[in-house]
Amino acid sequence: MPRKKPFSGKQKKLQLQAKRQEKQFQGSKDGNVGLTHDIWEEDPSDPTSKDLSSTRASSKKATRDRYKLEFQEESKDELQRNKEIAMRSYARRSPEEMEASSQSFYDPPIMFPVRPPWDHSLTLQTLEEQEHKYFQNFCERFRRDHKLGYVELNLETWRQLWRVLEMSDILLHIIDVRYAPLHFNPELYKYVTSVLGKEVIVILNKCDIVPPSVAIAWKNYLLEEFPKLKVVIFTSYPKDPSTRTLLAKGKQSGRRRKRPGAVGPIELWEVCNSLVKGELNIDSWKSKILDDMHINADEEDSDQSDCEVEEKGGNIAKLDLTYTKHAKYKDGVLTVGCIGYPNVGKSSVINGLMGHKVVSISRTPGHTKHFQTIFLTRNVKLCDCPGLVFPSTAPRAIQVLAGMYPVSQIREPYSIVQYIAERCDLPTILGLRLPADENSWSAYLICDELAELKGFKTARGARTDSYRAANWILRAALEGKVLIYLFPPQYHSRIEYWSSHPDADWLELKQLERLEVAEGLRSRREEEVALSESEESGEETAACSNAFALLSDDS
Fold first, then answer.
1. CATH class of this structure's domain 396-490
2. Which of 74, 77, 94, 75 has its CA nearest to residue 85?
3. Are 313 and 358 spatial neighbours (Cβ–Cβ below 8 Å)?
4. pLDDT in tens, 179-199
5. Would you give the DSSP letter of residue 205?
6. Residues 6+ apart with CB under 8 A from 536
7. What is the C-alpha to C-alpha distance for residues 126 and 360, in angstroms, rounded to an integer?
8. What are phi and psi of 255, to 5 degrees?
9. pLDDT, tens digit, for every residue of 57-96?
10. Which among 18, 22, 151, 462 is placed 20 to 30 Å from 197, CA to CA?
11. Distance CA 188, CA 194 (A)
12. Structural domain boundaries of the chain?
């Protein structure tokens, strides 16, 4: 037997990569038998052998990376410059600088990729080639304009948006109330209302994170700026004022309780019912909402329901991605499409409307990769579209905080931490103390002290892991633990008016009402369990006493 040769970890990694490639391209439809042999058996003297692996990889790239997200990387000089700025002391910004409007991120107006004209006489191949050429030209124009921020560059994802826009009767434009002007695209609103001639309802989601006065101010701003809009305030997980105060201070709210019931479904039904105008009876939707308001809040989320979900994978029917002419209220069904940016809570809104979990959710932006069709009732259908990042002039920092750009793709997080620190008292929120040898805070110093406080250490050398601490801050801001949000124009000049607005009081009472119902059901459930346990213990005591009585009689 020959002696064993040393086999490094790098060689093992290359071997596994070769096996995966061989498995992926085995039985390829290209008909080239030579492309299925092991890449390590290629003849080095053959000048064309080096291109075999690249040709083989490109043959299935479109299928393998169908829903892959593309991100633009910063240059090394830009990364180094941002890091040097983050090491300097910063100055706090005034609250008025957090006031923003739609023109702050969409001026001049930037059109998003719309579906090019088509008709049923076109073959599928011709249609796809036409769309691919159109989208390729769009991407080239986008890459030439360096002033634009990150935008979705996957044609398959945009195709799903086109399908949802075509098949829907009413569009729900779901936005995060913390970054309302960024998540609301005026060009999308104009396209749907003017070109498609459909109604748009804006869902101001996550209203329990911000004060009620801010949510009401954003609602009135949108109604004034865009008259054709209908606005509904929504939250799937209402929080009481004490919990919001803890989140604003960067503290946990304790044990996570079961969802007490969403705020906003009945208001959404009222708006949809007014838009339908008696052409379709959707009272069954209202009955479902009223029933869900009285369910036991302590019951576990169940995936069993009377709804039908169409999604990729599993034992569900194949997705209907064909292009058909839209018919209003087709087959007597109201089709409601849910569109919006990543991480605004589209799936959570659908779960809140259903009353239980029907679609999966995640904190990671871009979790939903394909649109899903859910029957809310027999004649009301919801379509959950994947989150899309539309072209805008928003800077990278605000895009990360708004959940549009994944934190995992950030190569230099300190400049974004500085953006947060300039707009809120970040050291106080995190409970940090300025070191004795320092005169002022910097973003890098905040990350360094937080890493020391939480014990974040590098794997090699056990040094302070400031990079991990910076990522922790970004994720905390994304989840609402570090509270930062935008205000509508002239909010602070009218802050007393918005604080005493009757709609703000109504929203606060609405959230408390859901919490009280959940707490009442929870306490009633605990009383029933305690009563049943006491009855069981009483029966056991009685049985024991009878047994001892029999023993005494025998004696």
1. mainly alpha
2. 77
3. no
4. 999 999 999 999 999 999 999
5. E
6. none
7. 35
8. -65, 135
9. 433 444 445 555 566 677 788 888 888 888 999 999 998 9
10. 151
11. 10
12. 152-384, 396-490
